[in-house]
From TrEMBL:
Species: Candidatus Kentrum sp. FW
Lineage: Bacteria, Pseudomonadati, Pseudomonadota, Gammaproteobacteria, Candidatus Kentrum
One Pfam family hit: ABC_tran
GO terms of molecular function: ATP binding; ATP hydrolysis activity
Keywords assigned by UniProt, alphabetized: ATP-binding, Cell membrane, Ion transport, Membrane, Nucleotide-binding, Translocase, Transport, Zinc, Zinc transport
Protein name: Zinc transport system ATP-binding protein
Length: 303
């Protein structure tokens, strides 16, 4: 008798091992999950769904470019209230994957499943600034959108640069630009933030502050966050889940487990793995389905 356990809340359901049950795609309706036994629905049964509310999921995503494999059969999901970080060497397919997930590229095969009405705030890997173009931060924030100055000021205050609204984009620092781009991503009140190298070109102190800001935004807003980062040291202390990518998913899990995984060690080296172990973090809280902070009791933490 086949049945689906440990399912996640998405438009379409998958089994515990990511497989359809007897060729039947499970359907979710609000808080009611229908179980299928041998392909037949049991509509008189209700169960408590997993509290991990899936916002977006990549299933079997593959892509080639110029005859070269960029991604091969990649699976990835991000839930509300969690920070998932993609790590990997240059050219491993990280940026391609996030561009596929936000709809800017179409994969050769596989699919992207989004929760109904999902709003995504996207911060690209880099933004080229033309020093001859006199565009202000206010104009940049409202390109393709419309918002009153009071709303823009509130967003800039949230990201820590509330005095920049009338400044020229060309004149602000790299760290300030990252915060302005983050404010623009928040303009849509996103359920999911997708941030490609959000601290690139920022000094160590600034990187730490930005990662802390991203975590604070997650905590306040209850959104999911998908990060791409090269900075393994910083990111290991600022993420809930790590996905190691090398054209395929090498390993995935909590930072403390991924850094010791044989494929991670093979990719980054034993020395890096050993050093990163001290950067893994232990939360004294978890996040509920709404993204709210919930203290971990002593019996839960095993202390």
């Amino acid at each position: 008798m086949d049945f689906c356990t440990g399912s996640i809340l998405c438009d379409r359901g998958i089994g515990a091992k990511g497989k359809e049950i007897n060729g039947v795609q499970l359907q979710y309706r609000g808080e009611i999950t229908y179980w299928f036994f041998s392909g037949e629905p049991q509509t008189n049964m209700t169960i408590s769904p997993d509290t991990r509310e899936c916002l977006i999921e990549a299933r079997g995503v593959s892509m080639q470019w110029g005859g070269r494999r960029i991604l091969g059969d990649v699976d990835l999901s991000v839930a509300r209230g969690e920070i998932v970080t993609l790590v990997g060497l240059n050219g491993s397919g990280k940026t391609t994957l996030v561009r596929i997930m936000v709809g800017l590229l179409r994969p050769d095969s596989g699919r992207i499943i989004r929760s109904a009405g999902l709003r995504i705030g996207f911060s690209p890997q880099s933004i080229q600034r033309d020093p001859t173009m006199p565009i202000t931060v206010e104009r940049f924030l409202t390109l393709g959108a419309d918002a009153p100055r009071s709303r823009l000021n509130a967003l800039l205050k949230e990201v820590g640069v509330d005095n920049l609204l009338d400044s020229r984009i060309a004149n602000i620092s790299g760290g300030e630009l990252h915060r302005v781009v983050l404010a623009r991503a928040l303009l849509r009140e996103p359920d999911l933030l997708v941030l490609d190298e959000p601290v690139a070109g920022v000094d160590i102190s600034g990187q730490s502050d930005l990662y802390r800001l991203i975590a604070d935004i997650r905590d306040r807003r209850g959104c999911g966050v998908l990060l791409v980062s090269h900075d393994l040291h910083m990111v290991m202390a600022a993420t809930d889940l790590v996905v190691c990518l090398n054209h395929h998913v090498c390993c995935t899990g909590r930072p403390e487990s991924v850094t010791q995984h044989p494929e991670f060690v093979s990719l980054f080296g034993k020395r890096v793995s050993e050093v990163l172990t001290v950067y893994t973090h232990h939360h004294n809280h978890r996040h509920n389905v709404s993204g709210e902070t919930v203290p971990i009791l002593a019996e839960e933490s095993g202390d």
